[in-house]
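Format notes (please read before filing issues)

Several people have asked whether sequences and structure tokens are stored in separate files. They are not. Every record keeps both together, in the order shown below: the sequence lines, then the token lines. Line labels are part of the format and must not be stripped during preprocessing.
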Amino acid sequence: MSLPENMKIKKINFAEVFRRLRYGEDLRQIIRLAIPVIASSFLMMAYNIINIIFVGKLGSNMVAAVGSAGFFMNLSWGMSSLFTVGVGIKVSHAVGEKNFELAKGYVRSGILAVIIGGLLWSLMLLLFSNPLISIIQLKNAVLEHDAALYLAIIGLSIIFSFQNQFFASVLIGYGDSKSPFRINALALAMNIALDAILIFWVGMGINGAAIGTILSQALATILFYRKLHRTPNLNPRLVSFQSSLLKKIMVLGVSPAIQRISFTIIAIFMARIISQWGPTAIAVQKVGVQIEAITYMTIAGFMYALSSISGQAFGAGNYKKQWRVFGSGMLLSLIIGVITTTIMLAFPSFLFSIFLHDAASIAMGREYMIIIGISQLFMCFELMATGAFFGWGRTNIPAITGIGLTLIRIPMAMAFIHLWKSDLSSVWWSISISSIAKGIVLVSLYIILFTVFIKSKKNENGFVELKQETI
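Then the structure lines:
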């Protein structure tokens, strides 16, 4: 049986798809969606800096207490990925299909699980804050007490932060990144104001910072619910919970959750290796990560935008656009990666001198910046390819490659240390090489697997069944 001529569509010509990038519509769409996400990330970075300044005025012990509790808060954010990543992907697929009832079903089914998960994690931190802090071995009874109390209090914010991350993912998957930005900006402004009032004016110290976080996160949750109920295509008020939909969300989220938790654990082991060179090396690595975060937060905004647009294209069966959006993402990665790499290689000493002032730290930082700078382009490729895989609904592939190639940093660092006679650059090279490998492998895998996927969509007449593009 043969198809009518008007139903036969030629198979995808990838070279032609890349040539069509010159029209720029996909680039503009990604940029429009990404800018509010990037702005939210930089607002959070600004808040973290201000928070460190506030807490720093209470003394280094209080900074250590907050930092110790922060480790377990990072783990909680990794746990929230179990729900937040998957719901964004499935909502984008449903929107692409124009099936808004299904989108509402994902919101209803996911939010109930997020609330329960947030309550359980908050309860765990409240009940076990002391034994958890003791794992870090601060070797100071007063400091451990302060850190445990801070953790128990700020743990209550997780009830709200889980929901806020969930709703932000839903809205971005829907194609609305401006609303999460506005809500997060308002919550962060409130948090900064409350920190100043509660820490210093009321005199509550770091516990005041914890209460400020709880109140600002609660405000954000209220605003997200308000936005959801004013968005008819996402409002789940008349939709019932479906365990099958929750399962689909969690299947997509389990790999990113494991990946993010694994990264935290691997980072601890790498910090132990770096500590062999003393506090200067630790400080250099911490500052270097903050400088790198500028690249990471920028490209991560584009990653989430690409994931949403690619997911909607996949849901609509518009595989041409899905491939073209990936190509646009690679172009953006190239531009951002080249710019950041150039800056890091051209001004390594200057970048570190902004944060550290002694000659030893700047010299060590210069070496770090040059070695890590080489990998920035590939980190951009990795994250953009991750967004493409997320939009496709294949979250396990970035997780497997990410965990495996990040894990090899530990044996690679040990091997290089032995080979190069305990040179600290051994550690920096292990980080840089693994980032380069992740970028190359993940982009290659996407190109190969998507090509195979397109071939599998051919019908018996050798044509690819594609829906008409609606851009």
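For reference, the curators noted about this record: The mean pLDDT is 83. The chain is about 80% helix and 0% strand.
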